[in-house]
């Protein structure tokens, strides 16, 4: 007896309706592959965004450091101006004071100036 379809071995592998699970498995694999591609693109986008945010953070930290340095400079300048103001007050009032009062006032001024310098040098450490 001759088989009318030699390719058909009776296992049904060549028929379209023979294994519907295989077709749904292939569809599932394609969907998962597409989903993996989309997630991969999303991860890449998030990595780029993270990189950009880190760059911006570094720039802001640099700007903050520059402002802190400027604030320190301004505080030092205010300290110098305060010291000058104090000594100018002593000079203006020197004519009204006795020699002893001038000496005491000068010593007090020098003592305050020394404390201010000590505090500013401790602050800078």
Any overview of this molecule?
The chain is mainly α and 125 residues long. It has two helices and no strands. It has helices at residues 20-93, 99-124. Helix 1 (20-93) packs antiparallel against helix 2 (99-124). It is rod-shaped, with a radius of gyration of 43 Å. The termini are far apart. The model is unreliable at 5-15 (pLDDT under 50).
Largest sheet: none
Count of helix runs: 2
SSE run: HH
The tally of strands reads 0
Radius of gyration: 43 Å
Summing up helix and strand content along with how strands pair, one would put the structural category as: mainly alpha
What helical percentage do the residues reach? over 70%
Principal-axis shape equals: rod-shaped
Q: Bin the strand percentage.
A: under 5%
Q: Which spans have pLDDT < 50 for at least 5 consecutive residues?
A: 5-15
Helix-strand blueprint:
Blueprint: H1 20-93, H2 99-124
In short:
By secondary structure, the protein is an all-alpha fold. Helices cover 80% and strands 0% of the residues. The chain has helices at 20-93, 99-124.
List its salient traits:
single chain; about 120 residues; mainly alpha; 2 helices; about 80% helix
